[in-house]
Amino acid sequence: MKFSVNVVFQMLALVAQGLMQMQELLPPRGKFWAVVVLSGVQGVVGVLAHFRNPDGTPAEAAWIAGK
């Protein structure tokens, strides 16, 4: 996963988290579970990105900046 893809996903998820809390789109119980699920997805994406270089190659491979 490229760094830019991770950043875009995390920023969109952050905006979604804020909107869910500020707007009355879901009932209170629905808000809770939506936040739990979205946080879990953000965590999984963060872990996947952790094991990749910024260009998307596996972290075990040497990364050369500007390539």
Description:
With 67 residues, this protein is mainly α. The protein has one domain. Helix content is 64%, strand content 0%. It has helices spanning 3-22, 28-50. Helix 1 runs antiparallel to helix 2 (28-50). The longest helix is centred in the middle third of the chain and has 23 residues, at 28-50. The two termini are 16 Å apart. 1% of the residues are buried.
Give a quick set of tags describing it.
67 residues, mainly alpha, 2 helices
Can you describe this structure in just a few lines?
The chain has 67 residues and is mostly helical. 64% of the residues lie in helices and 0% in strands. The model has no long low-confidence stretch (mean pLDDT 90).
Low-pLDDT segments: none
Q: Please, how many helices? A: 2
From the spread of the alpha carbons, the general shape counts as elongated
How would a crystallographer describe the biggest sheet? none
Distance between the amino and carboxyl termini: 16 Å
Report the count of strand segments: 0
Radius of gyration: 15 Å
The total tally of domains equals 1
Query: Could you tell me the mean pLDDT?
Result: 90
Percentage of residues in strands: under 5%
Structural class: mainly alpha
